[in-house]
Amino acid sequence: MLVRTEGLKKYFKVGRDQMLHAVDGISLGIEQNEILGLVGESGSGKSTFGKTLIGLHPRTGGKAYYEEQELPAKFSAADHLAYSKNLQMIFQDPYSSLNPRMTVLDIVGEGLHIQGQHTKSQIKEEVATWLAQVGLNADHMSRYPHEFSGGQRQRIGIARAMIIKPKFVVCDEPISALDVSVQAQVINLLDDLKNSLGLTLLFIAHDLSMVRYVSDRMAVMYLGTVVECGPSDEVFFNPQHPYTKLLIESNPEPDPKAERARQHASIKGEITSPINMGPGCRFADRCPSATARCSVENPKTKHISDQHSVTCNLFD
Amino acid sequence: MSEMDDTFKDNVLEVENLNVEFSTYGGVVQAVRGVNFSVGRGETLAIVGESGCGKSVTVQSIMGLLPTPPGKITAGEARLRGNNILNLPAKEANKFRGVEIGMIFQDPMTSLNPTMTIGDQISETLMVHRHLSYSDASAKAVALLEKTRIPEAKKRAAQYPFEFSGGMLQRAMIAQSLACNPSVLIADEPTTALDVTIQAQILELMSELQKTEDMSIILITHDLAVVAKMADRVAVMYAGQIVEMGTVDEIFYESAHPYTMGLKEAMPSNRKDRAKKLTPIEGSPPDLFSPPAGCGYFARCPHAMALCETKQSEEFILTSSSSHFSKCWLQHPEAPKTDGLFQVGDDHAG
Questions:
Q1: A205 and chain B: CB distance < 8 Å anywhere?
Q2: CATH number belonging to domain A3-86+166-232
Q3: Is A261 on the interface with B (CB under 8 A)?
Q4: Does the interface ipTM go beyond 0.85?
Q5: Cα distance from A196 to chain B (closest Cα, Å)?
């Protein structure tokens, strides 16, 4: 395992005596050169998990390991400097994640600059190489973010993360702000980089079809917990957890005949907010198969095959 | 297909040769360049395309929501039951917009007034257009919220937008748009900001209300999966023009424009036998400051011919019922055969 968490927790304090359990005990491992897809509704804690994993949020509990070495619970400035060489992040919003007052050269080259092992001209050279690698014109490095389209900005974000040759990258919804034709460009780029650099990725997205397409394994999150995890095709075509089943049934596909034949079983209600969570399964109030037991007893994680696990009381 | 043609014979809304420009510091952007379409009664027409293709500008022009200046409708007509509704003064426009044509927007959070309760925002519509008293309008607002299945509608009507989730806000906005029983509902990316689970709920709500209220829907989206689920007919827009239009099956199974093909191939399929690589559409859309003389898709098209660069294609009709056309020279009888592309003379799969 290149990266691994054990019961990772991240709570946020919201007002007096109120705790928001954004990530509540997640144990996941990601192998070297693997893409793990993380899906779930907004508010399920996907991004918080990714950020806590690489130290952008201090964690509340549990452990996180990189190359079997425990990561500090709260990163100091020195920790950030040390770990950011290997742990990087591509952010969701290509509009707000680039400083509008910095040129592309400054943005993409900042990582190298901070590491302090390159001269200015070396940095410029590297930036030019990376801009070309992500399909941007190297002549554009003196431009500012507002001069680029959404897809181009996302590439700038990718170049910024990749230029220091990290081993592990958290991609937080890297394509959801992009047009369909551009999504495919970015996905193929990530795939190429994975193969050429031996990258390991945590791919966070809410687009199930895309996650299934991109990832080797897929984990499904609901209110801070992972409810199902397994090889992508297995989770997608043979979902076991009631939530995963409903999620996949809600996912439309670009095929009118299949859509007309689809059984309409949209999921009831909305995701609640995980403030001061009580015991019991978090999905119990929306779950069509819930029993009395589900609202009092925390479900345990069971392995239904070597790689496929489900956290649900129905599987006892 | 013939059954469908009969159903949608009486067109509620017709748009003809719509041209819209924006004057900017950089010059004049020709955002919409000669768009024609019609929407039949009870029909759902989806307009698909990428950002900047002019799909939102098209419906904003129809609704009289185009900011003028910088926007300007330079040519064309839009007829609601035969009456032109383009370029009307606000007073005239208010007789149909929000009344005969309702609209819901992509981002419900910024489309509703944060300082007014949800109930009041819906009542306002009724008080302005239907001249109801405040108390009657408030009661009707609660009924409308119930119709869009907002639980505890009475309590919710007294709440402000920030107290609503994204999905609930979209329901509230639908309730507002239905206030005056419109015959056309324009939905501009109604579910783009929502999760798939909530998207499924909202889309099902829209289809249901469409039946009970006997509405036509114009659905603006970039998501082909949503199109497959909702649309009867589809217009594919690129660089300010409709490049292909047809029934949903024709567009998906008999795609006759390389851009439509490109969009389909750029999406991951949900089939088990996935091809390992997605096929992106390389390049980017043309600069509409000076639109190309020929086909807008020329620079990105894998099948482009010399003719495409200099001369715009006519709209080649592919079916006897003339429901399906493609604005592409490959449909010319003398054009070479192209693998995978549906062309004039091909057999219909049915």
A1: no
A2: 3.40.50.300
A3: no
A4: no
A5: 16
